[in-house]
Design brief:
Blueprint lengths: L1 H12 L17 H29 L3 H31 L2 H21 L6 H7 L4 H16 L2
């Protein structure tokens, strides 16, 4: 919620009106379903989100953007660390075949994200928000993929 408020305020400052979303109630999931989701969303998206927010905190042209993303980066790094720890614990609870499914899901999520990152953002947005260009984004992705595979 803190991220949503901070990023919504930034968006409004720059003339954008973010869409409001409603959180869905939590669903009961099996350990395998949780492990698959964690592989996609935690060990890939959260980890990449932490890397990009850190990049933005260092490269954004706007001081307020740097400050907001510095706070976001710290939180996302904690989320990513939790996802890596959770992934290790879940692997100890799953069968070898289930672990192979989870690893395939993680690799699929990295490939999907890599495809999404093939083009650079608009130059103005890239500079103002400090977003990495396509080459830098691919470099960050490769670094976190290596880190994620070690856990």
């Amino acid at each position: 919620m803190r991220h949503a408020r901070a990023l919504s305020a930034l968006a409004r400052r720059f003339g954008a009106w973010p869409k409001w979303i409603r959180a869905l109630p939590p669903q009961r999931r099996s350990l395998l379903q949780l492990a698959l989701e964690n592989a996609r969303e935690g060990r890939v998206r959260e980890l990449y989100g932490a890397a990009v927010a850190t990049w933005q905190a260092q490269h954004a042209e706007d001081r307020e953007v740097r400050e907001v993303f510095g706070a976001v980066a710290r939180d996302e790094a904690e989320h990513a660390a939790l996802a890596l720890d959770l992934g290790a614990w879940l692997a100890s609870q799953l069968t070898e075949a289930e672990c192979e499914l989870v690893e395939a899901e993680r690799q699929r999520a990295f490939a999907e994200l890599g495809h999404e990152l093939r083009s650079s953002p608009d130059a103005t947005v890239q500079t103002l928000a400090g977003l990495p260009g396509a080459a830098q984004a691919q470099h960050l992705l490769a670094a976190i993929e290596s880190l994620s595979s070690q856990s």
